[in-house]
Design goal:
alpha/beta, twelve-stranded mixed sheet, globular
């Protein structure tokens, strides 16, 4: 069996100008990065055309640690739509180097449903992550410099500074550090740390911006801490927003690449869904909608994370409404949520499969709570049994939801022909009545309660004393009308990673809050969430090789 990288390298990619031409873009309108990548100008966005196009969100049930192929499914569906004669573009997030060299691998799809050039996309791509990292760290340096000023600067209390530096790598040793050592010339010793770049608020801002002017305004609104008198300090008080925007002037432009079947793919931004909004940029989505009749996009992890945030945060801010939702489910993940051990997921286990269907049922109900009718895509794996697939289809039929077997990895677009036809039918015959779950005028605690009870299935929400104090502070600062972006584990519907399946009537515990005032949301943090992951005991990096000719193996 060929590896993903061997499959990708066996396909002759088209020149990026040919892909642009399929979208009606002239060669003079793109900024090529070599032969197979290009930046797209923001001037391509046509809001009126975007409103007429169909936006299809691909989400999933709660995944196993290695994921359930959501990106692969989105790419396969896009190829399937193009195969049946529809003008479709897939719009995805950029991979983070942390997972690439860690446990999950890249995010360019797999098998016959990949975006290429896969190696470039999974590594440095067009430098967007590097620009975000530099803008983030520039603000950190400006903050430290202001604290160091002999005339006192803004009078920032370094003990209140919440802004951290970032790096796009899994490095647990940088989670908590002391900076500013070395005497007077080294600044004030401060307890701080690093976030992974995908968790930076700059990443969230880039993905939540509608225009370049909007980006600059959001950068200025970043809350960084307080003065010694207790007054809030924002990046604009430090006159930092223009310099940060300069570093992001190219990164804000979405990237055009292609699928293995030569269909358009736009890739831009990469926030994680367990600690941020978990979806590609608004600009990339609107660009796709302006150039195609269908846009297939994905949101990270299960519907309890990525989809909820896509609806309540991104859709509302961007002014876009999804026409349909595809919930990706795998036989192995259903058995996992039914109690089967990770090592036994390829073995037949009807009892575990039946129990695990409760997790799928909850995600179906979650999508329906937003006024959208979903379709279930059973992402085919080699070990799947026909009887298991039939069981899932029968269950979905009883839930009055269509289930379709999709072989994205093995057959690409052809393996998604049926799913593509069903998605078109769903968009045409079942108009979306999409509505966010809560009103922005609701108070912060009410918003959390609504999500926890309706989406997660919680019975109650409990805020720690620290969280209550922070929430009260944010309300006084006028942040209570912002949407909430809950940070929690992706492994469970609850805040406890060990509660698999469909837990119910549990207490959802919020331990603390953060504010992303620039990005425009409040972040309640539940459980033991980390903004700087660590490498696993055997990282993917150990299996990678590169020869003297520059040929890479082991990257997927």
């Amino acid at each position: 069996m060929k590896s993903d990288i061997e499959i990708a390298n066996s396909v002759e990619a088209k020149n990026i100008s040919e892909i642009a031409e399929k979208l009606g873009i002239g060669q003079s309108q793109i900024e090529p990065y070599g032969h197979h990548k290009a930046k797209l100008p923001l001037s391509l966005i046509d809001d009126e055309k975007a409103k007429q196009s169909k936006l299809v969100l691909v989400t999933s049930i709660n995944p196993t640690p290695s994921g359930e192929g959501k990106t692969t499914s989105a790419i396969g569906l896009n190829d399937g739509l193009n195969l049946i004669g529809k003008k479709s573009t897939v719009v995805l997030r950029e991979p983070s180097l942390g997972p690439v060299f860690g446990i999950k691998g890249g995010a360019a799809g797999g098998g016959m449903s990949q975006v290429i050039p896969m190696e470039d996309i999974n590594l440095h791509f067009t430098g967007d992550f590097a620009a975000i990292e530099k803008a983030n760290n520039l603000l950190a340096a400006i903050i430290d410099n202001d604290v160091q000023k002999k005339d006192g600067g803004l009078g920032i209390d370094p003990r209140t500074v919440t802004w951290k530096r970032c790096m796009d790598m899994n490095d647990r040793a940088l989670r908590n550090i002391v900076s500013g050592l070395g005497g007077k010339a080294g600044g004030f010793p401060t307890e701080t740390g690093f976030n992974i770049t995908a968790a930076s608020e700059i990443m969230a801002i880039l993905c939540m911006s509608n225009t370049f002017a909007d980006l600059k305004e959001k950068l200025g609104n970043i809350y960084i801490g307080d003065t010694r008198k207790g007054e809030p300090v924002f990046a604009k008080d430090l006159k930092a927003e223009n310099a940060m925007a300069i570093l992001l002037k190219d990164a804000i432009k979405p990237n055009l690449v292609q699928t293995l079947e030569g269909n358009p793919a736009i890739i831009h931004g990469g926030p994680f869904a367990n600690i941020a909004q978990g979806t590609n940029s608004i600009i990339a989505t609107k660009t796709g909608l302006s150039l195609s009749d269908y846009v297939i996009t994905e949101a990270g992890f299960g519907a309890d994370l990525g989809a909820e945030k896509f609806f309540n945060i991104k859709s509302r801010h961007a002014g876009v409404s999804p026409s349909a939702v595809v919930i990706v489910a795998t036989i192995r993940a259903l058995k996992y949520h039914g109690g089967a051990k990770l090592d036994n997921l390829t073995e037949p286990d009807f009892e575990a499969l039946t129990e695990g269907l409760k997790n799928l049922q909850k995600h179906i109900q979650t999508i329906q709570s937003f006024g959208i009718k979903p379709i279930v895509a059973i992402n085919k794996f080699v070990a799947d049994q026909d009887s298991e697939i039939n069981k899932v289809c029968e269950f979905c039929e009883n839930e009055e939801v269509k289930a379709v077997l999709a072989d994205s990895w093995g057959k690409g677009g052809e393996g998604n022909r049926e799913l593509a036809n069903e998605v078109v039918t769903l968009c045409d015959e079942n108009p979306s009545t999409f509505n966010p779950l809560y009103n922005l005028d609701d108070d912060i605690e009410s918003k959390i309660n609504k999500i926890a009870k309706v989406v997660y299935g919680a019975g109650d929400v409990k805020l720690s004393a620290k969280a209550q104090k922070q929430m009260n502070r944010f309300e006084k600062l006028g942040f209570d009308k912002l949407p909430v972006c809950i940070a929690k584990t992706q492994k469970s519907l609850s805040d406890d990673a060990s509660l698999i399946g469909r837990p119910s009537n549990f207490t959802f515990n919020v331990r603390e809050f953060e504010i992303a005032a620039g990005a425009g949301f409040v972040i309640p943090i539940a459980g033991n969430m980390l903004r700087m992951p660590g490498l696993p005991s055997t990282p993917a990096a150990e299996k990678m090789e590169i020869d003297g000719e520059g040929n890479i193996s082991g990257l997927s």
